[in-house]
Input
Amino acid sequence: MEKKLQYERIIDAEKLLEIILKHKGQINETQVQLTLRLCGWKFQGTDGVRGIISTAKVGALDSLQLLINKNIITPAFCNLYAKAWGQMLKNYFSNVTIPSPLKIVFGEDGRDYYDNTGLKRSLIEGFTSIGLSVIDLGIVPTPAIAAFCFKNDLPGLMLTASHNPSEYNGIKLFLDGKKLYPDGFLGEYLLSWYIFSLAMKDHHIRGEKIGDAEVFSSVLIEKKDEIDKQILAGLSNSINADALSILKTIPIVLDTANGAYTQTSLSFFSQNEIEVIPVACNPGAKNINLNCGVGVLEYLDPVLIDDEANPDIVKELFSKGRFSGLEKIFGIALDGDGDRGFLLEYHSGTDKVYIYDGDAIGYIIAAGLIKNNVIEESSNFEFVSTVESDFALTIALGDNLNMNNNITCVGDRWLVSDLSPEAPILVACERSGHVIIPTLLEVEESSKEVPSKLLYTGNGLRSVLMAISFLLGNSDKKEELAKFIFIPGFRSQKAIRNCDMDNFYRNSELWQKVEGVVHRACPII
Output
């Protein structure tokens, strides 16, 4: 094992083996969970598993080594991951009355479909090989997976690398409409144990091609038009009549990152007679998130002047805005799987483009709900953001909206980790574009209690439409709402991505690179 997992700073193999061998034959799941927690051992990051795609045929144990040491995700790893999660679910629900066989909901953002990397096939084969059935939703945005799983009380898997470039892919898991947390008997630490244990037993797994009839015999294809209809209904409920009427006179520059939301979002605007100028709305091989989407906007200044270096959506806003004769036009940017969104606005008076990130969108929605009397008393509700949010957000919430800002860890799952019926969440947001507005879903023939009918998941297009609705609609309250603007504070941020984190330690070259960025931004330190 030491030879296979050489980086002890990620997995302390010696410590792990010492504890397990000491309790060999006696160790139970509780002890395993504690062991994994002590060792800090799990494969998942802040949002599931992500890595650079490789179609190499390797064994299961080697596939773990590739993921851990080189951040490479293979069909063999996907097969292993599906088998491990499926077995964990079967074991957990063994004493619960559930439909037989247990069904898993599957969706993807399109990169596997267009690039034919075989990851979907390997995942489905992993599930079906242990007796599980798969409901295939095809290419859908992540919020559609969460909603379908929640309504039907089923676990789900989304094959996506979110905002990452097309050479990446990843896996997000859903239970009860929410992403997995690290701890618990259905958590990531225990799942990592299942993965490693299975790899040791099935080290020969290489993800070789298996007959289609065998792989897909237990796959149920969900009607795409029904899924689209549900998504469109949710979008329509996000924007009021006043704003919709105004939007019919204003073109929208749309950037779907060539991802999963493309066709549905274009259908929504077409059905509502809203003019769309498409930018990066062409799903296909190797182009998801290619110089487009939220990922290219999140580290830019919130106010932009015309510049050749601007992303395409910003260039298009300047081009169309200057010749439209309108006071303003909007832009909408999503990420590859559609759970994040930014709002952009071109002002003719200043000849500038303004970017509203997740913090700003969350604030606009909260202000709109309060100032339009959608809720009666703001102090009864919670606003949640992460440690990466703008300090000015907390001040604006308190001074303008009489709301506290509860700050949590980075990652949209943590935004809704501490739900309380006594203080329900009004809005939860990340600066990166995740904005969660609790959504009431009708769940037929369910034993769920009323509070659990609220779906807590991010939906990039829905949150941006809600923000636009409050910015444009209710014309009689525009002046009042203008008093409650959120003025972002100063921030300096630089992304250092696609680095081997095993090279990040005190005084290493990568450490010095990060240290240099910090000193340039804060020279007094």
Summary: The longest strand covers residues 168-175. The chain has three domains: 42-222, 227-482, 492-525. Residues 1-11, 446-451 have pLDDT under 50 and may be disordered. Residues 75-92 form the longest helix (18 residues).
